[in-house]
Write a structure and sequence with these properties.
Layout: E1 4-5, H1 8-28, E2 35-41, H2 45-60, E3 64-70, H3 76-88, E4 94-97, H4 107-112, H5 125-132, H6 141-152, E5 161-165, H7 172-181, E6 185-189, H8 196-200, E7 205-208, E8 226-229, E9 233-235, E10 238-240, H9 245-248, E11 254-255, H10 263-281
Parallel strand pairs: 1-11, 2-3, 2-4, 5-6, 5-7, 7-8, 8-11
Antiparallel strand pairs: 9-10
Helix pairs in contact: 1-10, 2-10, 6-7, 6-10
The chain binds nicotinamide-adenine-dinucleotide.
Nicotinamide-adenine-dinucleotide binds at residues 142, 165-168, 170-172, 189-191, 193, 196, 209-212, 215, 230-233, 262-263, 266.
């Protein structure tokens, strides 16, 4: 039997519609329209597109956005000063510094300078610490989107075996905490894991966040498992995930496609975080 295809575009549209309706409720109740501030240093065409999409999503959700485009030779000091000013500005609810930044800037220091109450990307050390401690503040957008997609399948995570392949700060590590908080039994795999296929085959929920095209084949998947593919790999044949979609969809119970799975969720969860920041600051 073929797996259910988890439609990230549809789930993302549902989340964005929910946020839009909650924004209108918040503003109707006397709240100020939430404002997201974005920052890009230098000219990176991909970053420009990502940020433009984020601004459009804000507008569609009834929120505002402001943009700071800084020249590529901006010093770390000047960037830190801007981040600090945005943190002190009462009119700003969320701050997002689009990565990557030019080589002369230390991204960790910049992200650490973001006011944790406005850290809508959820990547600051304070946000990471709160999440690891089981008392989440802002949750990083892509992992939050993964959980939303799993919930959409109706899977009960309590007691489920969840296996994550990849242990990055951006995706793998936050997912370990998020899945533990949902009472899953969590295994984190990485490049040194022995018998990766064998470990993955135990998973009721298998999440691939690796960056290796089609690494996860059908021999990695327990029949009926939920498979979430975070990978986005550009190949000669277009975008492919970390999961070998065709054969795996014959074994899995539900699976995300690439594109159209996890990808669209990231912006939706950013909108959700921006509203959350505005609410908790109000
Ligand atoms: P990363 O490079 O920071 O981390 C990759 C992880 O995979 C590492 O922990 C590494 O140990 C592990 N790994 C590498 N090779 C492996 C192997 N052969 N076997 C097992 N584990 C291995 O990557 P990242 O930032 O977590 O991103 C992972 C993928 O997800 C990329 O394709 C990226 O483009 C994609 N991504 C998508 C979104 C989105 O959909 N919005 C967001 C972030 C990342």
């Amino acid at each position: 039997m073929l797996a259910e295809i988890i439609d990230g575009k549809q789930v993302s549209a549902e989340v964005r519609a929910r946020v839009a309706s909650e924004v209108s409720e918040f503003v109707g109740g006397g709240g100020r329209v939430p404002v997201l501030a974005t920052v890009i240093v230098g000219e990176d065409p991909a970053s420009e597109v990502y940020v433009a999409n984020k601004h459009r999503a804000c507008e569609e959700a009834g929120m505002k956005s402001v943009h700071h485009g800084l020249p590529g030779d901006t010093s770390q000091e000047d960037l830190l000063a801007l981040v600090s000013n945005l943190g002190a500005d009462d009119g700003i609810d969320g701050i997002l510094v689009q990565l990557p930044v030019p080589d002369h800037i230390n991204p960790d220091e910049v992200v650490a300078a973001i006011d944790p109450a406005k850290d809508v990307d959820g990547l600051s050390p304070v946000s990471a610490g709160l999440l690891a401690g089981g008392n989440p503040g802002m949750i990083p957008c892509t992992p939050a989107g993964v959980i939303e997609l799993i919930d959409h399948t109706g899977t009960d995570l309590t007691g489920a075996d969840a296996v994550i392949v990849g242990r990055s700060k951006l995706v793998g590590r936050p997912l370990i905490s998020l899945l533990l908080d949902r009472n899953a039994t969590v295994t984190a795999c990485h490049s040194r894991t022995r018998d990766l296929a064998g470990v993955c085959r135990r998973a009721d929920v298998l999440i691939a966040a690796v960056g290796v095209p089609r690494l996860i084949g059908p021999e990695f998947v327990k029949p009926g498992a939920v498979v979430i593919d975070v990978g986005i790999n550009r190949t000669g044949n277009g975008l492919v995930g970390d999961v070998d979609f065709e054969p795996v969809s014959k074994v899995a119970g539900a699976i995300t496609p690439v594109p159209g799975g996890v990808g669209p969720m990231t912006i939706a969860m950013l909108m959700s975080n921006t509203l959350r920041a505005a609410r908790s600051r109000a």
